[in-house]
Design a protein that fits this description.
The structure is a homodimer. Chain A folds into two domains: 5-130, Rossmann fold, CATH 3.40.50; 141-198, Arc Repressor Mutant, subunit A, CATH 1.10.10.10. Chain A is 54% helix and 11% strand. Chain A has nine helices and five strands; from the N terminus they run E-H-E-H-E-H-E-H-E-H-H-H-H-H. In chain A, helix 6 crosses helix 8. Chain A binds a DNA duplex through residues 143-146, 158-160, 168-172, 174-178, 189.
Chain lengths: 211, 211
DNA sequence: GACTCAATTGTGGTCATCCGCAGTGTGGAA
DNA sequence: TTCCACACTGCGGATGACCACAATTGAGTC
């Protein structure tokens, strides 16, 4: 199991050591990576925690690393560290979904606070995603026909009408319907609607932002 | 009705004129305000569009103006303009929900693009909020007893059980239930659940759920 | 060929929902 | 006082939902 970790990605060993020590004294578990490439090679989508990413590194920069991560579906909050960032860089990073953007030198407390908030955010995201994934798993257990019937049930149609539209008997609809309820772990169409309602929205927001 | 406007808030008349001219040539409707105070005094929550806010102004700064707006429930996207912003300022503004943060000098095209995206975002937000408000209006038509029954219906309970919990007859529950459907403009509990699924908090829940 | 699984259908019955009809009682507004 | 909105109730019937029991067919697997 992956424990939540603050992943420190920086090619400066002195800084890595300092951050590792800082996090250890604040009881924040962390891991060290000496380059963006090394981190990307190891990165797994199921990791939890957050990423503390230095912008200026010898090979791949932190910003490039961030882009690659986002393409690969990373959901971990990313905190950028930079010695000489400019405003457009910070704005771009945040608009692309970075969690925060800190200029060196920064207060130890400030960084730790941000990391702790990032860890909390990831934990929350993880929780809500877990329940959504569970629904998706149950949904995957349904046969095509069952899904078809389910959709019509959710459209509020009577079994009679569903039978008609699918050109099958009412009895068959009842059987499918019962199996859908059973497999989805609900006891009524109302519960089913509520279970599926949150995940039935369209479009993922691009940029967002509440805090 | 309020047309979507790009509200230009800047105490420098030359800049206001330039922006107004720029927007007009791009067919973006705009309005001018010569100070944060003037804008705040006129501001109405139902306005649509976006706000182009200069940071450095004589009296109240753009950042202060932004804080006041957020407190008052502003939902319009805010685009900051600044001649000499620093990274922490930009980061803070974006994390507090600003739409964008542009440093002068900027390309005309860049600003117009941002404004157009901001207007689009507001239009989208407005649309989704409208349907939500409509649901709220319908909910407000329900009598207290009807809302109570509705919550129990949405909990997936049988009329019999609802009658029991409220210590009334089944027939009365049926009457309330029918009125709820009628007033909410739905024809079944499933439709009701879907209508209310995105936005809802528990009220008057007696016992909690199982499953 | 035996076996599993998805899809299909019927019978007959129970329980829940929905509705029209016909009322009672209460508290506030005109 | 009259009118009205709200809450409440009973009866009986039509319709829908759910279920146990019992089967058939075709596709794909072992």
């Amino acid at each position: 199991m992956s424990t939540p970790l603050a992943h420190i990605v920086d090619d400066d060993e002195a800084i890595r050591d300092a951050l590792t020590w800082l996090f250890r004294t604040r009881e924040v578990a962390s891991a060290e990576w000496s380059s963006a490439e090394e981190f990307l090679a190891a990165w797994q989508p199921e990791w939890r925690g957050c990423i503390v990413l230095d912008i200026r590194m010898r090979e791949m920069s932190g910003l490039e690393c961030f882009d690659v991560l986002q393409e690969q579906g990373n959901t971990l909050p990313v905190i950028f560290l930079t010695g000489h960032g400019d405003v457009p860089m910070a704005v771009s990073a945040l608009k692309k979904g970075a969690f925060d953007f800190l200029e060196k030198p920064f207060e130890d407390n400030a960084l730790v606070d941000v990391v702790i908030r990032a860890l909390a955010k990831d934990a929350k995201r993880q929780a809500s995603q877990a329940s959504q994934a569970s629904v998706a798993n149950h949904l995957a257990l349904l046969t095509p026909r069952e899904q078809e019937v389910m959709n019509l049930v959710l459209a509020g149609k009577f079994n009679k009408v569903i039978a008609d539209e699918l050109s099958i008997s009412m009895r068959t609809v009842e059987v499918h319907r019962a199996r859908v309820f059973e497999k989805m772990g609900v006891r009524s169409a109302v519960e089913l609607a509520q279970l599926l309602a949150p995940s039935r929205d369209k479009g993922s927001g691009s940029d967002s932002g509440e805090h």
